[in-house]
Amino acid sequence: MGGKWKPLILYHLRSGPRRFSELKRAVAGISEKVLIQQLRELASAEVLVRHDYCEVPPKVDYAVTPFGMTLIEALLPLCEWGVRNRNRASAIDEARRI
Q1: In Å, how far from its chain's centre is CA 61?
Q2: How many CB atoms lie within 10 A of CB 47?
Q3: pTM of the model
Q4: Is residue 98 over pLDDT 80?
Q5: What is the Cα–Cα distance from 80 to 64, expressed in whole angstroms?
Q6: CA 26 – CA 81 distance, rounded (Å)
Q7: What is the β-pairing status of strands 18-19 and 48-52?
């Protein structure tokens, strides 16, 4: 479960299934290649399920599994901490870049 993108992807999937393009817009700054890689890793870990509707044009969405929901519940306090401390964390990050 390492990396900075997986928790963000899970955050955006917690309310229900999303299509790839919706996730791409929701997770600002992630490249298409990285999003595909992260979704595959989450699916192989049984945190997400990929549902292919076998239609033309192609329709695929991603949803959190019950196992993945337990992970989201564990990550929510960390997310809340991040929201509360966003300004301070950004200031520290900016100071490091100088």
Answers
A1: 13
A2: 22
A3: 0.82
A4: no
A5: 20
A6: 20
A7: unpaired
Structure tokens at 95: 């100071």
Residue position matching structure tokens 């960390």: 78
User: Side chain identity at 19, as an amino acid letter?
Assistant: R
Spatial separation of the C-alpha atoms in residues 57 and 20, rounded to whole Å: 14
| Helix residue ranges per DSSP H, the chain | 5-13, 20-26, 32-44, 66-84, 86-97
Whether the Cβ atoms of residue 92 and residue 85 lie closer than 8 Å to each other: no
63: left (phi over 0), alpha (psi -120 to 50) or beta: beta
What are the tokens at 30? 């992630």
Q: How far is CA 83 from CA 34, 80, 89, 92, in A?
A: 24, 5, 10, 15
Question: Mind listing the pLDDT tens digit for each residue in 26-53?
Answer: 998 999 999 999 999 999 999 999 999 9
Report helix angle 32-44 to 5-13, nearest 10: 80
